[in-house]
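Budget justification aside, the reviewers requested a transparent look at the raw inputs and outputs of the sequence design task funded under Objective 1. We therefore reproduce one unedited record. The lines immediately below are the structure tokens for a 224-residue chain.
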């Protein structure tokens, strides 16, 4: 359980860094960030699946888990663009408490170690935020839609956690679904924002490519 708490802290640190990546990628449109985030993540998870010779499971639970995880990435990315990083990060960090509340309602109250893990996850996110420059933390003013997107991210991650714990989903299959669905959705969003033309996403600079790689590999694949 101590190792599990350590993993919770590490994952929260990586997820919490999403706000930092988004701040430095603010010159890219939301649909461009989503497109490249899902594209890079899909390519790497496919390579991992091939390297590990993973069996791709075709169960409904894996598909539903993929939708929930994709929703989390979309909601969280949009929230960090639309609202202040401090509030968004704090709201998303409450996910473990939503998960414990769900299991409590199902007759499985949390124990001390689970509570400690949830607190570590929240602390991890706040540590990332506290280490950011003041301009990063306050660079975006709050908006009601942005905070609602943050709650949507927390609830989506709660749903993903419940599905994974209940059905014993395949992590690689779920991630493949999440990134594939996200890539298709971001392409549709990009097309819609350009009048459903055949426009292609704006090509990022070298610096932006490195930031996008960090977002995809650390705060997407690494955190998952």
């Amino acid at each position: 359980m101590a190792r599990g708490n350590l993993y919770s802290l590490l994952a929260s640190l990586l997820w919490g860094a999403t706000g930092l990546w988004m701040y430095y990628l603010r010159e890219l449109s939301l649909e461009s960030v989503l497109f490249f985030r899902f594209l890079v993540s899909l390519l790497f998870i496919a390579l991992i699946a091939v390297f590990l010779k993973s069996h791709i499971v075709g169960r409904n639970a894996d598909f539903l888990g993929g939708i929930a995880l994709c929703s989390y990435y979309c909601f969280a990315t949009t929230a960090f663009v639309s609202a202040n990083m401090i509030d968004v990060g704090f709201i998303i960090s409450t996910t473990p408490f939503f998960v414990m509340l769900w299991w409590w309602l199902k007759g499985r109250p949390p124990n001390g170690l689970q509570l400690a893990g949830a607190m570590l996850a929240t602390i991890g996110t706040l540590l990332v935020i506290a280490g950011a420059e003041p301009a990063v933390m306050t660079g975006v003013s709050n908006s009601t839609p942005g905070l609602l997107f943050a709650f949507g991210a927390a609830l989506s991650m709660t749903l993903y956690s419940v599905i994974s714990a209940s059905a014993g989903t395949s992590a690689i299959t779920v991630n493949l679904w999440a990134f594939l669905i996200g890539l298709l959705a971001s392409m549709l969003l990009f097309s819609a924002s350009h009048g459903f033309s055949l426009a292609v996403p704006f090509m990022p600079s070298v610096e932006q490519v490195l930031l996008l790689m960090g977002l995809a590999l650390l705060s997407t694949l690494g955190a998952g």
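The first helix runs from residue 2 to 16. The chain has eleven helices and no strands. Computational costs for records of this kind are itemized in the attached budget.
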